Amino acid sequence: MLQRDRLIVATDRVIKKAKELAAASGQNAKASADWQAAVSDPAVEAVVVSTTNNWLAPITLAAIESGKHVLVEKPAARSAAELKPVVEAAERCDRCVWVGFNLRYHPAIRKAREIVASGRLGALMSVRARYGHGGRIDYDREWRADPKISGGGELLDQGVHLIDLARWFLGEFEHVCGYAPTFYWDMPVDDNAFLLLKTRAGQAAWLHASCTQWKNLFSFEIFGRSGAVVIEGLGGSYGVERLTHHRVKPELGPPETTSWEFAGEDPSWEAEFRDFVDTAKERKRAKTSLRDALSALEVIAQVYEEGQHAAVTVDY
């Protein structure tokens, strides 16, 4: 039986950090700098992989091969090619392998899913979304700016969330058009990404991820034939999380509007972990599967592989 509240071993290459985490759990957990030993420990039933991008796929694969359930942080790998062997291994096992797209668990996003499922928006037509921040001093010297570690820039970092959510609402994208330039930061990865995605039915997603947003922002809008849903904020520095539902009247004109506000602590991490544990206990396939991550990474690959990432110098 998977025990939700029992930490067996905390692992970090910096052993001091592992010891601090183990002590903070108050559960007599072990501390180790050897992740291979941790994932193969017979007392461990589930592994949470929260590392830099270059280690996500190798550790997940090792955990799967050791028979563990796995919750791996997004984007699950540096590329679609790197993730494919992990997907194949996961589909041969009877364990739950889950990718941490925690934005799916934000209350406004969950409310939007409820509204869409109820049919109140009618047939969906499009999604428009923006997600961005402004970096910090020496942001271009951090691991996210090193393609060998990160695999990509803002498109892979925050853009993957937007792609995942847009696909969650609209379905698979068959046409991808994107541009991932470097406008501001002195780094060999992109600091902005602009995407136009289309489904086979012609539904469109217009997405912009940016680390030149300067003021943190999250905006996700869903448009249907009978109305629209507008989500703004994620709590904390992104502002209070709000959802507004606009219902189109038969005579058109100003819509009927209803709003919800979700204040307080971000519940998404706990909700996601609870769902992961429950799914693992029941031996069900994860709702947020590796296939979802693979689909998002394949969209990203099309942008990167078509040579559309380029440094841009703007003269004034």
Please tell me about this protein's structure.
- With 316 residues, this protein is of the alpha/beta class.
- It has two domains: 9-102 and 270-289, NAD(P)-binding Rossmann-like Domain (Rossmann fold, 3-Layer(aba) Sandwich), CATH 3.40.50.720; 103-267 and 298-311, Dihydrodipicolinate Reductase, domain 2, CATH 3.30.360.10.
- It is built from ten helices and 14 strands.
- It has a nine-stranded mixed sheet with strand order 13-12-11-10-6-9-8-7-14, covered by helices on one side.
- Helix 4 (80-92) runs antiparallel to helix 10 and helix 8 crosses helix 10 (290-305).
- The longest helix has 16 residues, at 290-305.
- It is globular.
- The N and C termini lie far apart (63 Å).
- Residues 308-316 have low confidence and may be disordered.
Q: Structural class, from secondary structure content?
A: alpha/beta
Helix and strand element order = EHEHEHEHEHEHHHEEEEEEEHHE
Task: Work out the strand percent.
Answer: 25-35%
Query: In total, how many beta strands?
Result: 14
Total number of distinct structural domains:
2
List low-confidence stretches: 308-316
Radius of gyration: 20 Å
Helix content: 25-40%
Name of the level-1 CATH class of the largest domain: Alpha Beta
CATH topology of the largest domain: Dihydrodipicolinate Reductase, domain 2
The global form is globular
Largest sheet: 9 strands, mixed
CATH homologous superfamily grouping of the largest domain: Dihydrodipicolinate Reductase, domain 2
